[in-house]
Amino acid sequence: MALKSTIHRAELEIADLDRPYYGRHALVIARHPSESAERMMVRLLAFALHAGPTLRFGRGLSTEGEPALWDRDADGRILLWIEVGQPDARLVRRACGRAERVCVYNYGGAAADAWWRQAGPRLRSLANLAVVNLPGPAVRALGQVARRSMRLQVTVQDDQVWLGAGEAALQFALERRKALGSVRTA
User: Fold this and answer.
1) pLDDT score, position 183
2) Is the per-residue pLDDT at 2 higher than 90?
3) pLDDT over 70, % of the chain
4) Domain count of the fold of the chain
5) Does a structural domain hold residue 135?
6) What Å distances lie between residue 127 and 10, 139, 157, 179, CA to CA?
7) Which domain holds residue 148?
8) Which residues does 20 contact at the CB level (< 8 Å), separation at least 6?
9) What is the CA radius of gyration of the chain?
10) In whole angstroms, what separates CA 10 from the centre of its chain?
């Protein structure tokens, strides 16, 4: 018998001063049995950083050819494709061919750095790709605030993220390894 996904619910309040975007979202997140709490929370953070009326979670780890999150217009055109972790460079290149913008939220400390050293040179020329590294301590802290039912407040300003979850308060900086339109790497 196959294991079923665990359903998480999040009430998410967002104040993104960099875009500017202010909104409230009631989200249902399916967590695949093989997905860590950290990865699920990185998906939730990516949602907060790109929130809008048509942004949706993908169907999950077991669905090949579909991102962690995406934003599609009424005609089905992919406006934004978001991956988390250390995706294969071929997958990222393919996504860049299908979507107007692609964002990768890279995390995992030394493993994330090794991924970027290997994949970065192959991804450098993709003008519609952004790669953001999340600090290891922040990702571990995100995993610790994961609950089946969550109420989160996220504030973003100047690539600084503040996240409140009950008594927990996290603050960390987004490290932009590659910006949209950039061919430089950090």
Assistant:
1) 46
2) no
3) 93
4) 1
5) yes
6) 33, 27, 24, 8
7) 6-178
8) none
9) 16
10) 15
Q: Is residue 184 part of a domain?
A: no
101: domain CATH number is 3.10.640.10
Q: For 25, which DSSP code?
A: E
Angle subtended at Cα 91 by Cα 65 and Cα 125, rounded to the nearest 5 degrees: 140
Is residue 24 within 8 Å of 14, Cβ to Cβ? yes
Nearest to 58 by CA among 81, 36, 79: 81
Nearest to 96 by CA among 130, 129, 70, 124: 129
Measured CA to CA, the distance from residue 172 to residue 137 in angstroms comes to 9
In this structure, which amino acid lies at residue 45?
L
Per the CB < 8 A criterion, the answer to whether 60 and 5 are in contact is yes
Give me the residue label for tokens 């290891």: 136
Over the chain, what is the mean pLDDT?
92
**Parallel, antiparallel or unpaired: strands 149-157 and 129-133:** unpaired
